[in-house]
Design goal:
Na+/H+ antiporter like fold; single chain; mainly alpha; globular; two-stranded antiparallel sheet; 18 helices; 472 residues
Length: 472
């Protein structure tokens, strides 16, 4: 559809606006590419790592220890800036994850059991095998980190696959996305069940109140997303008081979001035509006369898609290019050798080895093995045109486990009783960064060869199998 050439806004200077557009257009094109969010995430992590090992490392760490909060009479809530990022802003990230899960369950790859079996088996293998490898080498205090290598970072993974070009079959990309959604569900369950402590029943009561308010508003037809912010905060506060990680409130609210549009296509057309007719009737009159018709157009635009789609579209850019890179900048700053003690000493060495083995070896081994078993058992089909050899690329790229892995590491290795940093956390972060970098390197090195040929061990499929495979 050709773009409409608009005159500059009133009060602006056309040459200046044109110059600004020429500068911003390349940036907008870059941001439109899915891989760019992964690149920005990488740059944020490298910047944090560089600052944490520079002469400015003390200033870097002090920034995140800055206390922020509010006081309202006897009510005082103050936390450091890292808490605001990790427990506050990351709730929005988990909210978007909840929206994605809700959409996939309704009409995506997880809505049909037959189509969901392969990504479900792959994701299960990609969680169980890494955790098992970790526990095989880690014990004692290090054992708490078994959940760290279970996670895949979808931004990085999709970014790396995108950079491999058109040789990646579309079905393989869809499989990775479906696998990542299930992987997120697994990570959420692990956080909720195994990394929550000091459970308080009163907090769950508050969560229930917030959920009931949300359902009540939906029942009476409240459509504005802003009306749900306050009950969502009640759910967040209840989760925090209950002893489970408060970001899980974002998942709960995301799963409660309606997944069907209010206006069908015919009604959208009717509303638009009615509004345009009204605009023609009031042409030349006072601007106030336009407002009711513009309201109708706005409602048709908003209600033509489901709240899940609309809110996810509105938040995607903020999460991908704002919240997640900020999380990386706040948490990837590991000072190497700052304490004079080797990060590999004692339990640290077991954490490093466990995370590295889990991500680099466990992910591809688990994904390919359980996928093969599910296909051989007749429970699932490979996507048409995809071989097990190509599927191994998904296993390699799934070893990139940045955002969720660091998130789980912080829960697995919390600060000491006096607030001192847990040295195992720094080691886990280094292991995640190193293992993710190695997984990406292996994907780039082996991916073209694996994708370029369907032959080889485990790649052969009979004509009957190929015929029975369904498109993901």
């Amino acid at each position: 559809m050709p773009s409409v050439k608009r005159p500059p806004p009133p009060g602006s200077w056309a040459p200046a606006r044109g110059a600004a557009r020429r500068v911003l257009a390349p940036i907008e094109r870059i941001l439109a590419v899915e891989a760019s969010s992964g690149v920005l995430l990488l740059l944020a992590a490298l910047l944090a790592l560089g600052l944490a090992n520079s002469p400015w490392r003390d200033a870097y760490h002090r920034i995140w220890e800055t206390q922020v909060g509010f006081r309202l009479g006897p009510l005082v809530f103050e936390r450091d800036l890292r808490f605001v990022v990790n427990d506050g802003l990351m709730t929005v990230f988990f909210f978007v994850v909840g929206l994605e899960i809700r959409r996939e369950l309704h009409r995506g790859e997880l809505s049909d059991l037959r189509r969901a079996t392969l990504p479900l088996a792959a994701a299960l293998g990609g969680m169980v095998v890494p955790a098992g490898l970790y526990l095989a080498v880690a014990g004692g205090a290090a054992a708490r980190g078994w959940g760290v290598p279970m996670a895949t970072d979808i931004a990085f993974a999709v970014g790396v696959l995108t950079l491999l070009g058109d040789r990646v079959p579309r079905a393989l990309r869809v499989l990775l996305l479906a696998l990542a959604v299930i992987d997120d569900v697994g990570g959420i369950l692990v956080i909720a069940v195994f990394y929550s402590s000091d459970i308080a029943l009163a907090g769950f009561v508050f969560m229930g109140v917030g959920v009931l308010i949300i359902l009540g508003q939906q029942f009476v037809g409240v459509r504005s997303p802003f009306a749900y912010v306050l009950p969502a905060l009640v759910v967040w506060g209840g989760a925090y008081a209950a002893g489970i990680h408060p970001t899980l409130a974002g998942v709960i609210v995301g799963l409660l979001t309606p997944v069907t549009p209010w206006f069908e296509t015919e009604r959208v057309e009717h509303e638009v035509e009615s509004a345009l007719a009204g605009i023609r009737e009031v042409r030349g009159q006072d601007e106030q006369a336009l407002l009711p018709h513009l309201d109708v157009l706005g409602a048709a635009r908003a209600e033509a898609v489901s709240p899940v789609e609309r809110i996810q579209h509105a938040l995607h850019g903020w999460v991908a290019f704002g919240i997640v890179p900020l999380f990386a900048f706040a948490n990837a700053g590991v000072t190497i050798g700052g304490s004079g003690e080797s990060p590999l000493a004692g339990a640290g060495g077991r954490v490093l080895l466990g995370v590295a083995l889990g991500l680099v070896v466990g992910k591809p081994l688990g994904i390919v093995t359980l996928s093969w078993l599910s296909v051989r058992a007749g429970l699932a089909n490979l996507p048409r045109g995809v071989t097990f050899r190509q599927l191994s690329v998904v296993g390699l790229v799934a070893g990139i486990g940045f955002t969720m892995a660091i998130f789980i590491a912080q829960l697995a290795f919390p600060p000491g009783p006096s607030g001192e940093a847990n040295p195992l956390l720094s080691t886990a972060k280094l292991a995640i960064l190193g293992a993710s970098a190695l997984s990406a390197t292996l994907t780039f090195a082996l991916g073209p060869k694996l994708l370029g040929s369907g032959s080889g061990p485990g790649a052969a499929r009979t004509d009957a199998e190929a015929e029975s495979s369904t498109e993901l």
